[in-house]
Specification:
The complex is a heterotrimer of chains A (447), B (125) and C (551). Chain A is of the alpha/beta class. Chain A contains 13 helices and 15 strands. Chain A starts with 7 loop residues before the first helix and ends with a helix. Chain B is globular. Classes of the chains: A alpha/beta (447), B alpha+beta (125), C alpha/beta (551).
Chain lengths: 447, 125, 551
């Protein structure tokens, strides 16, 4: 039944105080014409019964023994201390910190999160989080349009198709044009975004170029060159980055990115069939008033104590209403806390170890497939921790391996129809040498 | 509450002081009080042109945001740079050090459309 | 009163009248001398060389195997190290534990924030969301590995359809405002599909609307027109009808309203909207009042968003994650964002009946819609399938409650709010003196005009009693608004204690207003300089200038 504590006596006392005979009187103002036609919700379950039901559903999933699937969501270690911290109900069952005096835990942890995101990205200000990397990137596109007063954005086709679709959906709202900058997907091509295409398509009518680093194929893009090219036409560079890669790849703030976004799921957040995740966004201080999302700032109380508050709230919907930069209200605060705790738990050395091991295993994986004559890299460019590999009859073999508990990455033509017989394989710090051996053996067995 | 004589006022709580063909504009203490502690002023650009009653900037407080509407048309000749670091001047001295911009008047006849101190006092009581 | 002087409960004694509501009294270990820092920033605890979590290195064989792969160009590499804190796991844990002690939370005390539905977040929901089969499920795994995830989403969508009385559901939106965006994009797609996209430019909202409503309308390129409320707290039907026309895209209305009042002319409201060919959107934030009593679909609404983190108990998390699924009528169903979880084999009625009885259906199969299967879809509003972890929690909650439990939620939520209404009506002005639903809005105008005590002062005084204040200054149409939503999970003793606290504050407002203006005194920090924070934004740790590291 419900979690209400009220006994018959409690209800009777309240009804008497209100001056009605039954609770029905409190609903008498609902017109009879809109009485519910049905309410076919099943009967209640006790705790042991509902556990049984959830176990039934969980057991209908098959968690693979070995997985090389990434493509926007990555299998990383979620340290026990991270789960412990976000499990604290003082964090989990608190509301948005509108009364700062009793919300310093939430507020200070968000300030720390903002600081960590700035450190990773090399940018000056970071927001308290967005729904995910894709929506953060979409909001960044709208922000770039506001900053430049232009109504067109360019996006590389080497950005994840789901991200592109979300950007298009958000841009369709205010009628902003989305121009695709085609990546080089030709045979033997780089798999990167050609600079000449950027120069050609990002002209004075375009607010920004959105490029991913690494891109969807794991490829390392010439981001600094993009920055110069787009700045020459007065456009901005929106860099969508993978957060663990920032341990070894250049911080976007150092190569001229104007707005940085990321999917923060790799930072201590479970896969959970796609959510909840967390979108990161960072920018320069000069653009802060056009930045969507919550911001926490440091200040002092009347006694001189250091404290934290939501600030620059005039940008937000509850004050600006129809002129707000965005309608965002609830964001992903607890996931941001998980990401912040993760970054503090692994530290700079740990993040470097994660990045190094992921990259090493990706290279190991590609080499093992090539050496065994099972396939070859589809693209020529250097890559971080994900790589596209051409394997004959990829879809059939992927399905066969999945049946045996091995997920051989993503069959690429499900998202890039022109890339036939390719698998997109990701490695993380959890990828062991045995996993790679099993994949190679599996591909061998399904020739 | 009485407001400085010799100024012209708008219904949207802006004031203008005219000296020859130069007009200095700001917001009234009534507006500043309604807004509360002012934290940010979006100033117009020097050289830009204003149109009477059109929006030309924004004033933000902790809890509210308000558009600024030009009391007169003209070209902006100066803006009060102090407001960038000290937006609180709008609260402490709305009619003096809290001035927002000076404008080269385009059409003095526009002033006839505005309120005098007495009419503005009545509006805000 | 400084932080070190805050009284601690006697050692070992249970605190039966929990005045702080925040557990053990907190003192900062750095509190020698004037305590100016409650808990140092994690960066200030960093010492070079400390580590919490370690990872294995690659095997030498792995490094050798990949050494001929293309090297990352030097100019793409990072040449410094991000200054992440270097702390031990114990220090890390202590830091966040101590921070958590600075929060008020539902799990500590009463949290009657109107419009937020701060009900108890059942822990079995947390248990469910962390089941490895669900938590480790990759959104792009082959469908045959994800049948549990897909079935759960399909079943939750079925339950939300039934709760709302609508035809179809998308679980993709990550929050209520996100659901609103989805609903308004679908509205526009609908009008465009009928050749009316150009001239339907306006969205009507009542003057009591939540700020996300007009903000959402703007994000979709609509102009917002505000309709006044009548003296009974409902939307003014005549004003609405006068504003409705061929240029109206939609009406966005919250029901019950943000005043906690049910729109008793709701059928006429929806009929008037449909008469001009516009879309009727219901903001479902206040669904906790009407479970089993009113279904937007039965009243003809075209789209409603549902806040799982409100009505369906998923935790607020300090600001999310939430989930804002949208339920739509038949005519908007073609426009739902893609991809939808579908049942691709098996009889839906049989699958449902079995699931309600705790059984799987042999031969039933679920899959995600093919990405481009529905050309009319508005696109995608976030990557992947939505906030699945919150779907698990909401599904667990609805199954635990069942039909009777859901009805009981609304019955008790509405009874509790009316109880507070009658018990506080002598102390505070009640702008709409009539039966309310799950929340009641008072006005602090008497205290302001007679004693100079604002609703803000009242809120800060409430903090000293270990209770979170109600929502203040919303809705905008009530002067000095105080919006109270007790929810159904608070005991009568808690409600009575709140009533006593509010009476005491009303008395203090009359006798000693200064005492309220000084509040709060027993919280970790007092009133903060918000103007200073906005004028001189300090939004991240400054590594260079830490002369105030300890204060």
């Amino acid at each position: 039944m419900s979690y209400s504590p009220h006994t018959t006596a409690d209800r009777a006392a309240m009804l008497a105080a209100v001056g009605v005979d039954s609770v029905e009187a409190l609903f008498a103002d609902i017109p009879a014409t809109v009485t519910p036609r049905s309410f076919a919700i099943p009967a209640p379950l006790t705790e042991q019964e509902v556990r049984g039901e959830l176990i039934r559903l969980a057991d209908r999933n098959r968690v693979p023994e070995v997985s090389f699937l990434g493509a926007g969501a990555y299998r990383h270690l979620v340290p026990a201390v991270v789960s412990e911290v976000i499990g604290r109900s003082e964090f989990a069952t608190a509301y948005t910190p509108y009364q700062p005096e009793v919300s310093q835990g939430t507020l200070q942890s968000i300030y720390e999160f903002q600081s960590l995101v700035c450190e990773l990205t090399g940018m000056e200000v970071a927001s308290a989080s967005h729904y995910d990397g894709a929506t953060a990137t979409a909001e960044a596109a709208l922000m770039a349009c506001r900053l430049t007063r232009r109504d067109r954005v360019a996006i590389s086709t080497a950005v994840h198709p789901q991200v592109r679709r979300v950007v298009e959906t958000y841009c369709s709202g205010p009628g902003i044009d989305v121009v695709e900058v085609p990546a080089d997907l030709a045979e033997g091509g780089s798999g990167l975004t050609p600079v000449e295409a950027v120069e050609r398509l990002v002209d004075g009518s375009v607010a920004c170029l959105i490029a991913a680093q690494p891109n969807v194929f794991g490829g390392i893009e010439p981001m600094a060159v993009f920055a110069d090219a787009v700045h020459a036409s007065g456009a901005l560079l929106v860099a969508m980055v993978e957060p663990t890669s920032l341990a070894i790849l250049a911080a976007p703030g150092t190569y001229g990115a104007d707005i940085v976004t990321a999917e923060g799921q790799p930072l201590g957040i479970p896969l959970s069939f796609g959510g909840p995740y967390v979108g990161l966004m960072a920018a320069r201080m000069a653009s802060v008033r056009q930045m969507p999302g919550r911001l926490v700032g440091a200040t002092r109380d009347h006694a001189g104590r250091k404290g934290y508050v939501l600030t620059l709230q005039a940008r937000e919907q509850h004050i600006r209403r129809e002129k707000a930069a965005s309608n965002i209200c609830t964001n992903q605060a607890l996931c941001a806390l998980a990401a912040a705790t993760y970054l503090c738990a692994v530290g700079p050395e740990g993040l470097r170890e994660v990045a190094d091991l992921s990259a090493t295993q990706a290279r190991h994986l590609a080499a093992a497939i090539e050496t065994a004559g099972l396939g070859e890299r589809r693209f020529a460019a250097p890559y971080f921790a994900e790589v596209a590999v051409r394997v004959p009859d990829a879809a059939r073999r992927h399905a066969a391996l999945a049946g045996e508990g091995i997920v051989a990455g993503l069959v690429l033509d499900t998202i890039y129809p022109e890339l036939h017989d390719c698998l997109l394989l990701a490695a993380t710090e959890l990828t062991t040498d045995q996993d790679i051996a099993r994949l190679v053996a599996g591909l061998e067995a399904t020739r | 509450m009485s407001y400085p004589e010799g100024l012209h006022y708008t219904k949207e709580h802006e004031w203008v002081r005219v000296e020859g063909s130069t007009a200095t504009i700001g917001i009234t203490s009534f507006a500043a009080d309604e807004l509360g502690d002012i934290v940010f002023v979006e100033l117009p650009e020097v050289g830009g042109s204003l149109t009477q009653y059109a929006g030309f900037g924004v004033v933000e407080s902790v809890k509210a945001v308000s558009d600024l509407f030009a009391p007169v048309s003209g070209t902006v000749t100066k803006v009060n740079e102090r407001l960038r670091d000290e937006p609180e001047l709008l609260n402490s001295d709305a009619f003096g050090d809290g001035w927002i911009a000076t404008v080269e008047l385009a059409d003095a006849a526009e002033l006839d459309d505005l309120l005098d101190a007495e009419a503005y006092t009545q509006l805000t009581s | 009163m400084s932080i070190t002087q805050r009284p601690a409960p006697p050692a070992g004694a249970p605190d039966t009248d929990d005045a702080s509501g925040r557990g053990a009294a907190f003192t900062s270990p750095e509190a020698s001398g004037p305590p100016t820092v409650v808990e140092p920033l994690i960066f200030d605890r960093s010492r070079p060389g400390r580590r919490a979590v370690r990872f294995p290195g690659p095997s030498p064989a792995a490094r050798r195997a990949g050494e001929d792969q293309p090297a990352i160009p030097a100019k793409a590499l990072r040449h410094d190290q991000p200054r992440l804190p270097e702390v031990s796991e114990l220090e890390l844990l202590r830091h966040f534990n101590r921070l958590s002690h600075l929060n008020h939370a539902i799990d500590l005390g009463f949290y009657p924030l109107g419009s937020c539905t701060m009900k108890y977040n059942p822990k079995v929901n947390e248990w469910a969301a962390s089941l490895p089969g669900l938590a480790a499920s990759h959104p792009l795994d082959p469908a045959e590995l994800s049948q549990g995830s897909l079935e759960l989403q399909w079943l939750l969508a079925e339950l939300l359809r039934e709760v709302s009385g609508m035809a179809a559901v998308s679980l993709q939106p990550a929050a209520g405002a996100h659901g609103e965006l989805t609903g308004m994009l679908m509205t526009r797609a609908y009008h465009r599909s009928r050749g009316e996209g150009e001239h339907r430019t306006k969205v009507l909202v009542p003057d009591s609307a939540h700020g996300t409503n007009p903000a959402t309308a703007s994000m979709v390129g609509y102009q917002t027109v505000t309709i006044r409320s009548n003296e009974r707290g409902g939307i003014d039907l005549a004003a609405l009808r006068a504003a409705l026309g061929p240029d109206t895209a939609a009406l966005m209305i919250t029901n019950p309203s943000t005043l906690g009042i049910f729109e008793d002319q709701i059928d006429q409201v929806v009929a008037s909207v449909h008469e001009v060919g516009a879309i009727a959107y219901m903001d479902g934030a206040n669904l906790n009042a009407i479970l089993g009593r009113f279904r937007p679909g039965d009243a003809g609404f075209d789209v409603v968003h549902i806040n799982l983190h409100k009505t369906f108990s998923t935790p607020h998390g300090g600001g999310g994650p939430g989930a804002g699924p949208v339920a739509v009528s038949e005519r908007l169903a073609p426009f739902l964002p893609a991809p939808l979880p579908l049942i691709v084999a098996g009889d839906p009625d049989e699958v449902r009946a079995n699931a309600w009885a705790g059984r799987s259906t042999p031969g039933a199969r679920f899959a995600l819609e093919e990405q481009d299967a529905r050309a009319t879809a508005i696109g995608q509003v976030r990557a992947f399938a939505g906030n699945f972890g919150m779907h698990v929690r909401a599904y667990t909650y609805i199954r635990s409650n069942g039909a009777d439990g859901l009805r009981e939620i609304s019955d008790d939520a509405v009874l509790a709010a009316n109880y507070l209404r009658v018990r506080l009506a002598d102390a505070y002005d009640l702008p709409y003196d009539r039966i309310c639903k799950h929340e009641v809005v008072f006005s602090g105008r008497r205290q302001k005009h007679e004693h100079g005590v604002t609703t803000l002062d009242i809120a800060k005084a409430i903090l000293d009693h270990g209770i979170h204040p109600p929502t203040i200054y919303f809705p905008l149409i009530v002067e000095e608004a105080l919006m109270i939503e007790p929810t159904e999970t608070e005991s009568l003793e808690t409600l009575d204690r709140f009533v006593n606290v509010m009476h005491e504050i009303a008395e203090t407002a009359a006798e000693d207003p200064g005492a309220l203006k000084a509040a709060p005194l027993t919280t970790p920090v007092g009133r903060l300089d918000e103007a200073g924070a906005a004028r001189h934004p300090d939004l991240r740790y400054g590594f260079g200038n830490r002369d105030d590291a300890q204060g």
